[in-house]
Amino acid sequence: MDEKTKDNLSRRAFLGRAAAAGIGAATLSVQARAETASTSARSWSRTVDVVVVGSGAAALSAAVAATKAGASVVVVEKGAAAGGTTSKSDGAYWIPNNHHLVAKGMVDAKADAIRYMVHGAYPTLYRDDQPRYGVGEHEYGLIEAYYDNAAPIVEDLEKSGVMRSLLVELPDYQDHDGINKTPQGRVLVPLKPDGEIGQGRELVRQLRAWLDARKVPFLFRHAVTGVERNAAGQVTGVAVTTPDGPIHIRALKAVVFGSGGFTHNPDLMLNFQPGPNWGGCAVPTNQGDLVKIGMRSGTKLGNMANAWRAELILESALESPSVPRDIWQPPGDSMILINKYGRRVVDEKRNYHERARVHFVWDAVASDYPNKLLFMVYDRRTAELFAGNYPLPGPGESASYVIQAPSLDALGDAIQARLDSLQARIGREKLAANFAQSLHAQIKRYNVDAKQGVDTEFERGKYPYDSVWHTQVNSKPRTDTQWKPASPNPTVHPFDANGPFFAIIVGAGTLDTNGGPVINAQAQIVDVDGQPIPGLYGAGNCVASPASSAYWGAGGTLGPAITFGTLAGRHAALETEKEA
Q1: Whether 114 contacts 144, CB under 8 Å
Q2: Which pTM was predicted?
């Protein structure tokens, strides 16, 4: 994102305009009646078949699908540039039974894949011996629709020249539970024209290039604030705020939302998400616009307590809640995450979504979140051998969020001093009185294990995800230091007894939230009774995710976004024209 775009997307300005979410039934009723009133006298600034709101993977996929189906389309984007949070992502999309996997002779059977997805999405409901594995028809239907459509959609996009993909054989995020029969082979990434692997910006570029070639207009700095509905309750367009004032855009057939979650709406985060959350890598414009519009329109809300979770650097989030990136996996092998009691609480190498949830543990005796903040502690060896692997500074570089001390005892004092300096923004946070003593004991235990290449506390490195993502993605060792990578378990190595030692304060955040209006298997948004609202569709992080609480694997966000965005665009284009 260039500096001009950053200025236009002033985080402080966006966050300062966050609207309250507490809308009473009486207010909803009045607003719903207003929106179902006839709009025949409305002055429309533009008329198209399908209005697409947002410009990330979900929205662009919808725009491509609707255009391919012969509909006229306009893309309406709140920000100053296309791409949304997709443009900040690594760009992977998780596609079960994809044609690249099949071409390698791998098998991703429908029953097995759906079983894995249901188990991850609804662990409290999952029953192996019950129909639909214990979940409802609606929930099962969304997951089944994902399996049935994701692979054909991506293959069609490739054959149509819209995008290029490459399979990367990385383990899924639940690679060891015995339920996942195809633990790798579902992760695709965009392929650049030069044959290199691309990221989110490349995925956006490919989708946008196809639309630009067909002269699909993009309207930037256009914030959709409501949907227009006719006397029959059908959606006929959108109300938009622009730099030049309010306008209305007519949708002859349908409106598709792909406008992102509500990570940067403090009120919605407070009222719907478990705490504590400090921010996320979603773009600042992700303020839950569709949630507010949906409540005014009588939509059913779902999955509001879930999100795509990750850990982030606390001090970066305090500077800007829209952090540049999250901590996918803490780098290093002589490194641990400890809480304020000086104790490890998690396998540091497990996936970011699962790992971040440890921050929400509640201590019923102390009436406190013991893991509210965690401290990434590492030694000189990790600092040098893995320099440049985020969030470690590069060789010869420094970072203000890194705390350094000559000894473990001094490190505890330095961490407390940093917490004290942040008190005005984070509240009073105190390490336990015996923090240094516990940290010494914790590292001693860790070192005993590491010398044997094991982790008896949290089984770090026992399963493929830990070591593969460590060695291939997040902890690539340098070759210009005196240190050698750990072996045979590459994820664990004893701490060097000599200082200095380092710490980074880590908190819970999101990639983005993934709750909002509920959709059906055709990506239609439904009302409080579960009935489709004519002419209204949604996909991506602005709607209740078909994945619910699960993060199935790398690209678990963009896979459903592309799939249901495409379904939304296809079905929107097939709608009949509606009277205003």
Answers
A1: yes
A2: 0.92
